[in-house]
Amino acid sequence: MALHIEQVQWMPSPPLAPDDGPIDRAHLHRMTLGDAALEREVLAMFAAQAVGLLDELSSLPSNVAALTHKLKGSAQGVGAFRVAEAAEWLETAGSDAGQALMALNDAVAEARSAIDGILRRS
Question: What is the pTM of this model?
């Protein structure tokens, strides 16, 4: 029996990256195999790395793409998907680099605030 598209009920796809706030805790938990100490360690390392990379990016150096790619990968690893999206935008922004950098700064600030809260609670 042939299936006609009109007969298929539309179902929304789940988001590619869940929007559970600045840090997707479930993703982080999976990536660290449930090791709470490792979660804290990688969050602290990510926060420090993000600050350092933002400092380097502030002048929009010629290696913007490489720096933002590095930040994007780290952000994806800890579940900071908004940071990853903002980094990807800056990575390819071209003439919109200033606006993309501001968005990245905001995303990192939000993630760092969430990380500070997580580290204080643990």
Answer: 0.82
